[in-house]
Amino acid sequence: MSSALEISGVSKSFGDTKAVVQLDLNVPTGSLCGFLGPNGAGKSTAIRMLMSIIHADEGTVQVLGTSALKAKDRIGYLPEERGVYRKMKVGGFVGYIGRLKGVKGNVLRKRIDDWLERVELPGIRNRRCEELSKGMQQKVQFLAAIIHEPELIILDEPFSGLDPVNARVIGEIINELHQQGRTILFSTHVLPQAERICDRIVMIDQGRKVLDGTVASIQSQFDPRVIRIEPVDINCDLSAISGASLIPNSQSSEHLLMRLDDEIDATGVLAQIVQSTPVRGIEIVKPTLDEIFIEQVTRSRGREAAIQVRKEMSHV
Amino acid sequence: MTKAFLIGALVMPLLMMGLFIVVMPLMMEANTTPLTGTVAVIAADDVFLDLQDRLSSNENPNAELIETLPDIVKHDPLASAILRNGSINNTDIVLQKSLPNELETLKENVRDGALSALIVVPESLLRTTYQETNEHLVVLIPSSFSPNHTDLLSSAAARTVVDVRLRRLGHVPADMHAMVKRPRVNAKRLTHDGGEKEDNEAARRIIPMAFMLLLWIATFTSGNYLLTTTIEEKGNKVMEVLLSAVSPLQLLGGKILGQAGVSLIMLLMYGGAAIAGLITFALLDLIPISHLVYLTVYFTMAYFMIASIMAAVGSAVTELRDAQSLIGPIMIILIIPLALWPILSEHPNGLVATITSFTPPLIPFVMILRITASTETVALWQIVTSMVVGFGAVLGMVWACARIFRIGVLMQGKPPSFLQLLRWIKQG
User: What is d(CA B233, CA B225) in angstroms, rounded to the nearest whole number?
Assistant: First the structure.
């Protein structure tokens, strides 16, 4: 499969701060790739280098087989920092960006009307951008990024600041564009969201790539360490089980979770549980991206740093 | 082009011009309500008769003043309307000769409106030999009396006093006025090529300043617009969207070239209005075509210098107030030609003028002033050198500013210092 995005050995520093370090990335054409990492991981810097907005100190960047500068009309880009011309009318703003990207005339006008309808903003074409709510402005900017029907769409935190209803609308459009065969790269720090819609994940931390592959392949690389138990009696006593311990606050009315101790084989623990209490179901849970990420950060930076990163990501 | 620009740059000046050329003269004309009623006069018989003749003859009280004015003022619509304003139709006035002992009664009559005004001419003012006096010609009017009517009566009475003095000395006032009228001076410069050139002192001082100001207004208005729009695009975060469609250099180039068109429109508009004014007063020969060509050349030089500086500063800061600290020193340098205007226009080929006309970024402003102020043609080698140095400086400035712009547009937070800007130029 050909690559829509290909970067190799790319680094970028700002003064003494290394924003991106020796980053390699290959996004196949037609994939929906999540670009993940905590705030300050280097996602936006990497994306700006992809867009040729800033230049890498070293390494090569190829977008749609050429440089982003040459392929700009074939790329749709939603930057992390949202911005519109406040005094401009919505139709004027989207039309201006569309014209910059080479779409003109009646085609552009029709597309603007169709897309405004599609993102549930009908009738705002002649309203000034400053009259819109933040969420509405964000949807308008999303439209500006895709109005020229690009082959490659790069979205930097597209869901940040959106309420669940609007996030669902944008999520559906992203899926739709993906179904049409467009390549989509979107960055987010909300890992469960990426896990749900992406077919491919790239995860970076402190400017370095820590994970890269399909969601399934990444999950399969990690040893599952959590057992999900649905006991007949939810109040059963599992304290005698050796090699695993209950995960605090994980108990619901139907199930509870146990974490395997390090270097303990899951098979023996499963047998112990089944013998000690009748169960309706028991399974080894696949690790979530969240857990995988924490594990990666723990390996590279230690447990304390991982907890701190986890907190930051859940707060933002 | 935003509505604000259209209003500020096009509509407002047109409105102002319309106001001064059409509306105000019309208003002045409309404000010519005739003075009616009875005016009492306490004066000698000859004074009374002269005043009566004068007021019934519709004589313009500003006639003397008008005679002394240059043609350019006499033909100005607003000025002529103001001057004509004195010649109001006053035939409805009835003069009533009164006696000094009636003064208090007459004052009461003026107060209650029975009389339109009261004029008192003391005999001491009519002496035919010069003698210092503290006495005044008195014109008493009601509180709501029009200032124009006051001027009319005051001026007519004062002129009457002078004419009566002359008559009492046995002279004919009209002859005496003609005798004391100053002759017109026709100063001519003898040029080195053997010719003669009319020396229009006022034009020689005003036109160079007008040219320089025109350059200033056209370039700085546009430069300021570039500064604010760049800051706005950074502030509202739309910059990155633009940079996803064009490169920073394309963006800078587009902004500068686009604004150049706007600036040129302003130059043509203001310059065109000035030329139209000169054509109206048949003074177009004061501006040779070559000056307009030089104006275009030096405008191009000035615009690209100022525009690139403003765009670079706009890209480096996130708020307008941060821009002031960077723009301040540049403005101080660029204000030098304005501050030096008296010296430069007095000695357009002097040492100061010559040095500053080769010093970027002062070149375009100083050179246009020199070329238009100089009675002798500025040496061709100086003009050519100024263009070479000036356009060389433009290239250098655009290059440096482009490097600042490239880094600055994506920078947020604290504004950079001059040293940092220099580093950006090096890095960019």
Answer: 12
Nearest-10 Cα torsion for A279, A283, A287, A290: -30
- B241 with A79: Cβ contact below 8 A: yes
Residues 6+ apart with CB under 8 A from B228: B314, B320
Amino acid, res. A48: R
- The Cα B49–Cα B121 span in angstroms is 13
Task: Give the model confidence (pLDDT) of A165-220 as tens digits.
Answer: 888 889 899 999 999 999 999 888 777 778 888 889 998 988 999 888 888 888 77
CA distance B248 to chain A (A): 8
Tell which of B231, B236, B239, B241 to mutate to test the A interface (max A CBs under 10 Å). B241
Hey, CA dihedral for B79, B80, B86, B88, is it positive or negative?
Answer: negative
DSSP states of B11-36 as a string?
Answer: IHHHHHHHIIIIIHHHHHHHT-PPP-
CA distance B278 to B118: 45
Phi/psi at A40 (5° precision): 85, 10
Substitution target in B244, B250, B251, B315 with the highest count of A β-carbons within 10 Å is B244
**ipTM score for this prediction:** 0.75
pLDDT per residue as tens digits for the range A69-97: 888 889 999 988 778 888 899 999 999 99
Q: Is B425 exposed, middle or buried (0-12, 13-18, 19+ CB in 10 A)?
A: middle
Q: Using CB atoms, pick whichever of A53, A73, A75 lies closest to residue B240.
A: A53
What crossing angle do the helices spanning A105-118 and A134-146 adopt, rounded to 10°?
A: 140
Give the gap in angstroms from C-alpha B257 to the nearest C-alpha of chain A: 16
User: For helices B147-168 and B173-180, what crossing angle results, to 10°?
Assistant: 100
Q: Kindly state whether A104 is in contact with chain B, defined as any CB-CB distance less than 8 angstroms.
A: no
Tokens 């390549």 belong to: A183
- Tell me the C-alpha distance between B328 and B317, whole Å: 14
- Pick A57 or B415 by higher pLDDT: A57
Bridge pairing between strands A32-36 and A183-188:
parallel
Q: ∠ CA A253-A255-A260 to the nearest 5 degrees?
A: 145
Chain A residues lying within 8 Å of B243, measured CB to CB: 51, 53
Q: In the 3-class helix/strand/coil scheme, how is B125-181 assigned residue by residue?
A: HHCCCCCCCCCCCEEECCCCCCHHHHHHHHHHHHHHHHHHHHHHCCCCHHHHHHHHC
Whole-angstrom Cα distance, residue B304 to residue B257? Answer: 9
